[in-house]
Specification:
With 462 residues, this protein is of the alpha/beta class. The protein is 41% helix and 15% strand. It is built from 16 helices and 15 strands. The strands form three sheets. Strands 4-10-9-8-7-5-6 form a seven-stranded mixed sheet, with helices on both faces. The chain has a four-stranded mixed sheet with strand order 1-2-3-13. α7 links the parallel β5 and β6. α4 packs antiparallel against α13, α14 packs parallel to α16 and α15 packs across α16. Bound molecules: pyridoxal-5'-phosphate (PLP). Pyridoxal-5'-phosphate binds next to α3 and α6. The site of pyridoxal-5'-phosphate has 16 residues, from α3 and α6.
Length: 462
């Protein structure tokens, strides 16, 4: 292991990093990114990388967008902070809320602003609990999400998340959070089961789960249209139609977590439009501001708003809110980002590029290391396996995905590896067709190097 640079040593001695083995990280140190332009970021040595993950599924308009920079600077000069507490307001928040209502795929009555996807999903849960208290059904409180879902890391959002590392030794999930089956055909379909049959079974299982728990106790179901951090899992055909029917049957409130899929990732403004379902409420974050500044939102229907009114009358105040929720500078940037999305037809552009992206992605299905390469729109996952035929995964301690990420970085490409050695891809929506080709050329070289290493270390055998 080469010695760490001075900056890397200072990092290791001062920061706690999310989502890394903190013990081995002390030896490897960080990749320190210094600047960005377009779809490229540059490390402290000046080496360029294609940002194949749009940061963390969020920098949809790429780096160095002067219009966004100017929107932030202008708002900072005009009014650097104002809040929405205790009856105060400001025009960027009002305008942004209006814009979100205008582009919403379902009837939305109001927007509640917060700062992160986790806060948005936490808020969704609190509002559903409030709703059911207001409706006089205090027992209808359980929330259903799914195995491998990712909804964030605050205490309630982490309880929604269906990944072991977000629960283990954090004493989570909290009681009352249930996890339905993961809609991954590749891993969980039975022999000979078609996508539609698999979807029918999952809907029947959800129905059985709700009945077992008692529908009078089940309040809401939350889902990402395409699961991101769980390994880019595209649900089987007809899944959401069938799941939505089950929710409707039991009067279960349906929330679409659009933190990744919102704002064009699947080639439509919202992921639920691509996957053909109509949620009651929507969580948005990330690409809403193209991640130039943090901002998130909870988009709620009229009946939830009516519950907030009723509870406010009863209690005297709506006791929820974040200091920086709807921050005027973040809101001004988000407004500008949405203006650019609509003006430059970025969602349509993503839809037009998707066939090129998916063709290159799916070509990896022929690679000896790849169990399945899958995606939708401009999001993709490449699941590495020890044995293609049996779909056997590598042992987690071999860190095959993490090693592939290192090979990709050596090739000048940033990708991520998530649970089960799935390499995830989510490039900025402004990527060009030529840059997509370059991204996949680099990934192909990284996969070949990974294969060479796996073979040399005989990792496929254990
Ligand atoms: C679908 C989804 N929901 C929620 C979150 C949590 O967002 P944050 O990290 O901003 O709290 C994420 C983050 O990746 C996400 O992918």
């Amino acid at each position: 292991m080469p010695p760490l640079s001075n900056l890397a040593t200072r990092d290791v001695e001062t920061l706690v990093h999310p989502y890394i083995n903190l013990a081995s990280f002390r030896d490897t140190g960080p990749l320190i990114i210094e600047r960005g332009r377009g779809v490229y970021v540059y490390d402290t040595e000046g080496k360029p990388y294609i940002e194949g993950m749009a940061g963390l599924w969020c920098t949809a308009l790429g780096y160095g967008n002067e219009e966004l920079v100017e929107a932030a600077a202008a708002q900072m000069r005009k009014l650097s902070f104002a809040h929405l507490f205790t009856g105060k307001s400001h025009d960027p928040a009002i305008e942004l809320a209006e814009k979100l209502k205008e582009i919403a795929p379902v009837p939305i009555s109001k927007i509640f602003f917060c700062n992160s996807g986790s806060e948005a999903n936490d808020t969704q849960i609190k509002l559903v609990w409030y709703l059911n208290n207001s409706l006089g059904r205090p027992n209808k409180k359980k929330i259903v999400s799914r195995m491998k879902a990712y909804h964030g890391v605050t205490v309630a959002a982490a309880s929604l998340t269906g990944l072991p590392a977000n629960h283990r030794d954090f004493d989570l999930p909290l009681p009352g959070f249930l996890h339905a089956a993961c809609p991954q055909h590749y891993r969980f379909a039975q022999d000979g089961e078609s996508e539609a049959q698999f979807a029918t079974r999952l809907a029947a299982e959800l129905d059985a789960l709700i009945v077992k728990e008692d529908p009078a106790t089940v309040a809401a179901f939350i889902a990402e249209p395409v699961m991101g951090a769980g390994g880019v899992i595209v649900p089987p055909q007809t899944y959401f139609e069938k799941i939505t029917a089950v929710c409707a049957k039991h009067d279960v409130f349906m929330i679409s977590d659009e933190v990744i899929c919102g704002f064009g990732r699947l080639g439509t403004a919202f992921g639920c439009e691509k996957l053909n379902f109509r949620p009651h409420a929507i969580s948005v974050a990330k690409a809403m501001s193209s991640a130039y500044l943090p901002i998130a939102g909870v988009m709620i229907p009229e009946n939830v708003y009516q519950a907030l009114l009723a509870e406010s009358k009863k209690i005297g105040v709506f006791g929820h809110g974040f200091t920086y929720g709807g921050h005027p500078v973040s809101a001004a940037v988000a407004l500008k980002a949405i203006e650019i999305y609509l003006r430059d037809r970025i969602f349509e552009r993503a839809a037009a590029l998707a066939p090129i992206f998916l063709a290159r992605l799916e070509a990896f299905n022929a690679h000896p290391l790849v169990g399945q390469a899958r995606g939708l729109g401009l999001i993709g996952g490449v699941e590495l396996v020890a044995d293609k035929r049996s779909k056997r995964s590598f042992l987690p301690q071999h860190g095959v995905g993490a090693r592939a990420v290192q090979f990709a970085e050596a090739e000048g490409l940033i990708v991520r590896s998530v649970l089960g050695d799935v390499l995830t891809l989510c490039p900025p929506l402004v990527i060009s067709a030529a840059e997509i080709d370059e991204l996949f050329d680099r990934l192909a070289r990284a996969l070949d190097k990974t294969l060479h290493w796996v073979t040399r270390e005989r990792l496929a055998q254990s």
